[in-house]
Amino acid sequence: MKKVHFSEWGIESPKFWGLLALIALVAAIGGVSALYMELNGHWVTGMTNQIVWGTPHVFAIFLIVAASGALNTASIASVFEKKLYKPLARLSGLLAITLLMGGLAVLVLDLGRPDRLIVAMTHYNFKSIFAWNIFLYTGFMAIVAVYLWFMMDRRMNRYYKPAGVGAFLWRIILTTGTGSIFGFIVARQGYDAALLAPMFVIMSFAYGLAILILVLMFTYKLDGRELGDKVLFRLKNLLGVFAAAVFYFTLVYHLTNLYGTENHEYEAFILRDGGIYTFLFWVGWVFVGCLLPIGLVYHPTIGKSRGGIIAAATAVILGGLATVYVIVIGGQAFPMAIFPGKTIVSSGFFDGVNGQPFLYSPSLAEVLLGIGGMALTLLLTFVAIRVLQFLPDSLADEVVDPHHAKS
Amino acid sequence: MSSMNDQARRDFLKKAAAAATTATVAPGVVLHTLKAQPRTTAVTSKVRWGMLIDTSKCADGCTDCINACDKENGIDLVDKPEGADDAMWERQRPHWIRHVKLKDNLTGRVTNLPMMCQHCEEPPCADVCPTGASFRRADGIVMVDRHICIGCRYCMMACPYKARSFIHAEVAEKLTHTPRGKGCVESCNFCVHRLDNGQATTACQEACKHQAIVFGDLNDPDSAVSKALKAYPSVAVRDDLKLNPGVRYTNI
Fold it and tell me: Could you say which DSSP state residue A227 is in?
């Protein structure tokens, strides 16, 4: 491999500022939405005392999960020493930080009392996985920042590998922690499964890589850098593997559930009778999120076209959002079995009368806050690549692979 | 000369301010110390508050306990925000106690019961709370410290009894003994303000004309609740979770 040179994102100023202004506007709309919800209270959202976590949580969890997955490319380069991925390590680390910031912003702005963030930083209950996550998230940003520094500062290059190993281990723990938020909820039938932790890890691989591929293709296209097939095909093949792994975990999760009679009603709800959740499961989670991208990336012609790769990565992201929606909201919409063996005929507090699921429809403000978090991620990413050397000058085949010319 | 005058004036103002402060605060302090004496002694685990509900006595259509709870804890003061949809607000307004009617899937037997926070010995809400705002007192009462609740709602996700409510809107009027603020979570606290002031009943128990609710100290073998628990077979809801709740039911 030739020596890789890095440089700042060099698109013309008007284009850069125009793009930035557009994204900042979307982020600002998200901020205003959060303010609107906070000033009025959550009654202006679709959330209730039955569906307590709504659309903002879907976006926040998606972004947080994707953050740890975005680091994967850097980990493959420094922990597993795959040289081809090395030029991508800086962007990979950067996206890990900016995705996490976007996700955390949404999560915090959806709190009932975001003004009490300082309380969350000073009062800890260490039996709570949420409290652990506060350390896991802030620690992740710190460790990846150090990792990037060691990567980009020649004097510190010799510490680069241990920092990479540290970041890799940290990210596995982090996503295990995020999956455990649901895995530790014993009362709800959709959750309470140890499998959720590794499933979140594998989901993170897919979502983070899909976002990295799209950001890479977009930034390279805009300032005319060369992105060779060699590196791009490797990434898209990996995306196919990750999408297949998510599919595998989905199968295991539902098949093991189907074995136990106590879970039959929950499974019937998600797989057959759940209306929007059933639709999002089959069409969003399974088809768009798993089968479609697998079909696209391994298709002999479409899989080798830029359009096909963009479509596959986009499908993974949209399918991922559907997946998190089904897990977070579908899991709450299915009424808890408070009285097993009995049907609730009437209730003064919506206990799932006659097994009816709880109603939820997202409000506009919730969706805008979520999209605002995604915009914040892009805003931070584009500013960073503009001022610091994150992008390799070229990822042409002869740059990333010395044997290319011979073949 | 003028600086001397200034100094004198400043001294006078300082003394006057100090005197005014003492006059305003001191009676409050004295009053507070006198009245709050019993409450300054820490709650101990010598007492465990608990409840037994005889569902065979709970009448279909009766809402006396719910009305009493709403009044006692100022839940009736929580107004629907202007512009809120009626059906939606029903799902968003707080409930501490609710009436549930059950039908057995096999036998078709119908049961009526009040459902509220079950005051678990091992409360999942307190386990998952990141700041420790959800906690269990030594005397078994599970409640929320509203000074450090950040409104994350993880406790509501974790509670197996769906006993908790999030305050979805600004609350204009509230009772001194039940502070309530937009953005925090709350639930039944066994009328803790009554217990801490020496009373031994909850509003729901007092209001139940069918005597379906017996409340008292589970650790005292001579208390009415302990005697009733000894005399009749009872169950804990979701006993499989091994949370050892302080609320028990008979005839479910």
Answer: B
Could you read off the pLDDT of A106-126 as tens digits, one per residue? 999 999 999 999 999 999 999
Domain assignment of residue A407, yes or no: no
Per CB-CB distance under 8 Å, the chain B contacts of A120 are 130-131, 150
Among B149, B160, B184, whose Cβ lies nearest the Cβ of A187? B160
Question: For the domain that residue A187 is a member of, what is the CATH number?
Answer: 1.20.1630.10
Q: What is the ipTM of this complex?
A: 0.93
Q: Please name which of A213, A185, A97 lies closest in space to residue A149, comparing C-alpha atoms.
A: A97
Distance from CA of A101 to the nearest CA of B (A): 18
Q: Does A48 contact B at CB distance below 8 Å?
A: yes
Which of A128, A185, A188 to probe the B interface (max B CBs under 10 A)?
Answer: A128
Domain residue limits at B18? 2-35
Write the pLDDT tens digit of every residue in A15-70: 999 999 999 999 999 999 999 999 999 999 999 999 999 999 999 999 999 999 99
B216 with B181, same domain: the answer is yes
- For A377, residues 6+ apart whose C-beta sits below 8 A from its C-beta are A63, A95, A98, A99, A101, A102, A103
B125 min Cα distance to partner chain A (Å): 10
Window A:338-367, CB contacts with B under 8 Å: 338-351, 359
DSSP assigned state of A157? G
Mutate to test the interface with B, among A52, A129, A327 (most CBs of B within 10 A): A52
The pLDDT tens digits of the residues spanning B37-58 come to 456 788 999 999 999 999 999 9
